[in-house]
Every structure is written in structure tokens, then in C-alpha cells.
Amino acid sequence: MKVAIITDQHFGARKNSKLFHDYFLKFYNNVFFPTLEEHGITTVVDMGDTFDSRKGIDFSALSWAKNNYYDRLNEMGVKVHTIVGNHTAYYKNTNQVNAVDLLLREYDNVTVYSEPTEVMLGKLLTLFIPWINQENEERTLKLIEKTTCLCAMGHLELQGFRVNNQIVMEHGLESKLFGKFTRVFSGHYHTRSNNGTVFYLGNPYELYWNDLNDTRGFTIFDTETLEHTPVNNPYRMFYSIYYEDTNYQTFDTREYENKIVRVIVRKKTDLKKFEKFIDKLYASNIAELKVVENFQIQENEEFEAFESEDTLSILNRYVEEAEIELDKSIVQKLISEVYQEACELV
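RE: above sequence
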């Protein structure tokens, strides 16, 4: 039996941005649903963070999710197993009040898991592990210890895996706790990484600048062979363009329609030609444009920010190279959290 695994969909992201929901829809209409139909997949495992905000839901975001995702899965006869993640649990110390349970009760094909549960996927007994917190940690670890499941799927915060292209998580549970399993699949971190047993599958699409050039998508899992195959999302939202006196007349801007773009200036000897280059980008119905010409950190003349780096990369490397007595991984995690919260305000 083949099932689809998808995680960290974050419906309602970026303050319920229409731009991003339109971008999401291209993935679902042109990649996700056609792949389910092509492979005859009738079971989807959602490993958490289905909705973006744990504190509330914008009604238009909920309507979008139902009209474009849940209604269609229901019409296709697809069973959805939904695991509670940290973004869908209202409280930080318990999963009992959560968005997916409260918002999706009308769907008979959707089952929500707020507690660790053994579930049959085809003939494979699989352990579903929702977000581990103060209230359920003891029960979860006991079930992990005694279960006979070969496979686990959940929303885990484990050490040693990439949070994104810039940060490797140095806190959380140790992956050796899951050493008994043949396969462990997890959401939570949005980028793909693995240690041979534990696989972070990554989210379906780009949400922030630190997702640039990081392949996204979902996964097809064979419950009989335990083989898993990534299905990549070909659509991007973020683009970097390097300007080096680039000829605006021959530069093709069609790819950047409804995209978020930054122009990194390497060489600009003719201001008028550069302005015409920028005007051409705007004329292509670009969604958002930022021009980067230089970057300086006045407090430390020895630190050099590279033009190819995004903001989060620069900040994390600055912390890494700084002579401070604090735990740098904690500082970097805080910076990442503040950065993502700031992105959600714009």
C-alpha cells in the first residue's frame, strides 16, 4: 500500500497572504492531487502544523483550506490521518485543545491524533507521535519503549538535524531514543535531512527567504517495502538576481511574475540602465522587490557579510564568529524564531 506523507502545510501563513495561498494552490492542483490520482493513493498522513497560527484562524484561510484541500480529499475518498503539531496546539504544555480537532470535525475522512497512537497503515502497524510536551512526554516515551511498530511518524524536535539551511538543532530529544524503529518520519523542521533512520521530510513549499533554493514537496511511502520517494515541488516563491550591468533589454523577467525578488548589485556603472532594469522587473508584475547593494556591521570591522547571504544567514554567522560566553545555539534559535515572527508581520 502506498500512502502520501505531507507536513507543515501552514495554511493561513504570512497573515493569510493571498499571494502565498495562490502559490500553494499551484502545488496542490498541479503536483499533489495529480500524484495521488496517478498512484491510486487513498491515504494521506499529515505530520503536523497544518494551520499556521496556534492562537487563531482567519476565516478566509479556513475557507481556503476547506475549499481547496479538505473538500477535494473528501470527494476523492482519501482518508487523512492528522497529527497535532506545535502550531496547531493552542497551549504549549498540552495538545488537548488543538486547531485540527476543532476545525475539521465535519470531515468523516479526517482523524486527528493528539496522543501517541498505534495505527494500521495497510498491513503496517505505525506509531503516530504528536507534538511532545510537558503533559504527554512521559506517556509518549513509555509507548515508544514498549511498541512493536517498525515505523513511527510524528512532529518531533530532535537534536542533530537541520532546522533550515543555516541552523542545525542542538537541543531537543536525542535521536537514539528512536533507534528501535526501521523508519522514523517527522515534520517540524521545514528542510529535508536524515541520519539513515530518522527522516525529516520537509514542508511542501517556500515560506521565508531562508527557504531559497531548498527543495520542497511531499513523500510517497510504501508500507510493504518501507521505501519512500520524494515528490518535489517545482514552484518557487523567492528569487535572487545578481546584477552586473545586466542588459535590461535581453533579460527575461517572465519567471518573476507574482514572485518575491531581491536584486543583489555586483556592478552598476550606468544608473539609468539600472533603473530601466528595475522598471522592467516591476512591469512583469513582480510581487515584492528588494535591492541589496551593500551591508555593513559597524560594531565589528572584522566581520564581512557576503552579498549572496540572506539576513538570517548573516545573523547566524555573526553569532557563530562572535566571542561571547553564551550558548551560541540558543542565541541562534532565538534569532530564528524572532526572524520568522517578524516575517509574519509583513
